[in-house]
Amino acid sequence: MDSSGQFLSPSAAAERLGVSTKALRLYERRELMAPARTGAGWRVYGPDDMARAEVILGLRQLGLGLTQIARFLAADATDLDEVLAGHQAALEDRIRQFGSAIARTRQLRSRLARRRRTDIPDLSRLSLPTAEITVAFDLPWPWGGERFELRDIRALNFIVGPLGSGKTRLAEQLAKALPDAAFVGLKRAADDAVAAQARMSADHSLRSRVAQTMDRLVKEGAAASSALTALVAVLECQETAILVIDMIEQRLDQTTQVALIAHLRRRQPGSRPLFMLTRSSAILDLAIAGPDEAIIFCPANHSPPIRVAPCPGSPGYEAVATCLASPEVRARTEGVIARRPEAV
Asked: Rounded to whole angstroms, how far apart are CA atoms 190 and 195?
C-alpha cells in the first residue's frame, strides 16, 4: 500500500503494482476501481486506490476471475465466505481433473514401456468418461453430522486414514447409502469362508470362477490361504453391485497383496466398483495409481473425509502417504482397532 499520501500517475501506479496501465484501465472499465481525476481530467491513484488495486491483484493471484472479484468486493461479510467457498470448490475440482490426467498419462507411459508403442484405440479410451455414481449422506460419529458427498465413483476406491479416524464407520455408511452394496468385514476369513464354501457348493459357476482366479493369483506369486480364498469368493460372488471391503490386505503377505491389486486393476471396464480400506503401500502404491482409481482420506482430527489426488503437492497427499506402510510394518498393528468410548 502507498502510505506516503501522494497521488500517482497511471504509469507510476502500474510500475509500483507490477502490472500494466492497460490492466488498471481494465479494472476501471469493470468498475473494480474508480481513480480520482485531476482538474485536467488525468487519472491519479491515491492511497485508497492503491490499496484496492493490491486487493484485486491478490485475488487474481488466487485464481479468481474479474466477475468473481467484483462479487467479492461488493459482498458483505456473510457473502464473502460463499464466494471463496465456491472458488475453493472449483480449484479442488481442477486438482481432481489434473490428478486424473496425470494418472492417465502415467498409465499411457506404462503401456508404452511394455509394448514400445500404443494403438489409437488405447489413446481414445483415455478420454472416455467414467460412469458416474453419486452418493450423499450425513456423516455418522465420530464426525459432527456434516454432509458428505462423493461423485464420480471409480472402479477402485481406496479409503485411507490413521487408526481412530473413523474410516471403518465411513465404509459402513457407504455400504448402506450406495445402491445394492454390501460391507465385507474383518471376520471374512472365518465367517465369510464358511458362507463362501456354502455358496460355492450350491453354485458351480461361482466355484469355477473362484478356482480360476485363485490359480491365476498363485501363478503370479500369491500364497494360497483360507483368507485369500474367502476374499476371492466374495469378489467373485455377483449378489451385489458394489462391495465395500474392510482392510483388504488382512492376513495376506506382500507378494499376495501385489498379485491381488494387479488382478483387480486388470478387471474389465464397467466392472462393479470396489471400495477398499487399506493402510498398505502394496495395495495402494501412490506412484502407480491409475485414472480409474480414487482415494478417500479420513483425517485424524475428524474433519470430513476428502478426495485426494495421487500427485505430490495435492491437498492431503502427504497425509495419505504417512498412513501407508509396507505389509511387514502393517502386520505389527493387525488387530489393533480404535474403539468408541463407552458412554458414562
From this structure: 9
